[in-house]
Queue: 4 jobs
Job 1
Amino acid sequence: MTAAMTTTVPGGPVAAELPFFVYGTLLPGEPNHDLFLRGRTAGERPAVLPRALLYDGPGYPYAIDGHGRVHGTLLVAAPGVYGELLGLLDHLEEFLGPGHPRNLYERVVREIELPYGGERPAEREPPAEREPPVERERPAWEDAPAEEEQPGAGETVRAWVYLAATAVTRSLRTGGVLIPEGRWVTGRTPGGPDTP
């Protein structure tokens, strides 16, 4: 475990209502997103976990500390459901308490990068009726590299992340399948198990 790690015991008092960073079956469009998150979030946006690696698992991924980046989504709990959501996610991720020997994942606090402040104006739908464009000076963001090419382009926030527990991490480092681009895709391993 690292010094930067902070956890709370499941069912115990909540230290801070931090957002959650998800990177696997809880992503929008994945089956666990609807099962566990529908109606329980007030906001979701793309985000990146720096200094981490992503490994393929049996139907779901594992993130561990490392020299890479994991792409996912930052979730903010809806008002009044934070404790419920925290308990559901702890149960799903098999987090029994900080350092518990039967943990599948550890819930830890990490700095999460939010690429840019939000939607780029060029990505908006143009109005139905519009006058011809006028020559203008190009804003700097139009020439900026894409999010994937510009680490740390936006702000950072502290969030809960479920990282593989110690025993799982050891196993992944010695024989796991690394996902080099750090993006979870359902059914990514040809011939491997599909995600539920």
Note: The chain has a mean pLDDT of 78.
Job 2
Amino acid sequence: MSKLITALWWKAAALRGLYTALAIALPYLGGAFIADIQWLTILSAAALGFVTSIATSLAGLPEAVGTDLPWWLAAVERTVKTFAQALASGFVGATLLTDVPWSTVVQFALISALTSLVRVILATLPNDPSPAIAMVEAVDGTWTVAPEPESDLGARVNEHQDRTFP
């Protein structure tokens, strides 16, 4: 429980909660344009997703304790958690399990999980290691490509690999 008082844990948990809430709200927003989904339902589902994300973060946040998970394991963990949180958020407004529109809720949960997976993939892509092309004007008025300074591509790749998973 001592990790709960650190600012790093709260920042990481809030960031995960925000990402989860956005991933859950996106399919509901898309559905609101097609069907009659009330804004209160969208906000409630996103808020519930945020709360469930904070709750699941109590089990541990690898980025808060300095654990560097393999990329694929972290991606699977985030995708499965987002699917479960979005599925739980789909119960908003239902009194009985028979009141839940299962086809819609499962579809929205799958879209939320896919959104989370795409975000994880985009967050772990390396920056473009190629330098910008610089043009210089010669004395005769023609333009040529400036010679590139020597760059250590291996060090840049290692620097990217040393980053912790978001």
Note: The longest strand covers residues 135-137.
Job 3
Amino acid sequence: MSSHLDVRLREGTKHSHTMTENTAFMKCFLKGVVEKSYFRKLLADLYFVYSALEEQLEWYQHHPIIGMIYFPELHRQASLEKDLAFYYGENWRSQIVPSPAGQIYVNRIHEVANTQPELLIAHAYTRYMGDLSGGQALRKIARSAMNLPSDRGTAMHEFEQIPTPEARREFKEEFRSQNSGVRIKTLDDSLTLRYQWGIQTRH
């Protein structure tokens, strides 16, 4: 690799990331205008995405490359299940389906896992590092905007084993350190799906 993975990912997805931030949904969100109906649909899509990603990470946890970034404490599936139960009720599983864009994203994760599993690292990196960084600000906005109970509705962005800003900062450094030793010839061009999904589901 010519540079660290985080630099390559940041440069490779900069344009798509900017487009995501400029969607109507995100502009309103950042201003503190958050509708539960849209928010819960977003969480539903995330549930399918993280379920697919974490299924594959679990399968490849002993892989010589993927195993370097296998951190179960980052996994979001169980946390999203708590959120979905809060927003949809106990029968939430029968009420959610992935959006068309979300299904394309999920399909790509499985495709990558079956053909070039080392590229899962890039998908995991962009998702989890985002959750540990900007996701924390989104959590605070959501709690305030929707006047949520103190212990419900934002489990997606709460890391029980990494609870403080200091702990998250240290963990991100460890995660980057692990990735600095990863050698991937090419990044997955379909990483833009991560942002295209965000654009299509947030307009």
Note: The two ends are 36 Å apart (CA to CA).
Job 4
Amino acid sequence: MRELSQLIDVAEPAWPDLQEALACGSVSVEVLPPDGDLARASLLQLQVTARSYLGALVLHCGGLLVDDGWVRVFGSPVDGVERGMPSLAQVNHFPGTFDSAWRADAGLVVAQDVLGGVFALNGVGHVGAGRPGAPGEIAYFAPDSLRWEGLGGRALGVADLAGVRGAR
């Protein structure tokens, strides 16, 4: 297990690059303010660093409203619900306090769209959850077909949901 300082204090944090990319993206993106305590607790539970886009989003924003709210990417919102936005921790049922045994083996639900579609970041056990693709790829649950669909052959990340190209 890594300590919180090891997850936050990293060389080449992703947040500055992500901020720049979001500002230059092809669709509008509103960055919601984060709850610092929730952000740190979520980062610790995830055990990902701020060098990754997922870690940067969880640590530095309450979530993203993409294309005027058409897609909502989960983060660590102020007071747990900023503009009706649940946190990544709530959506994925993180434990109330750090639990080193907790794992999101099937992956994480990272976003949803206004039509009821769900975006999930595949984990190592994603096949058992009925999702196509490889670990690290995003799968989309399409409300029109009621099936999971892969979103491409390369590892898509959270940033791709916001129209950011070249995601780490």
Note: The chain has a mean pLDDT of 87.
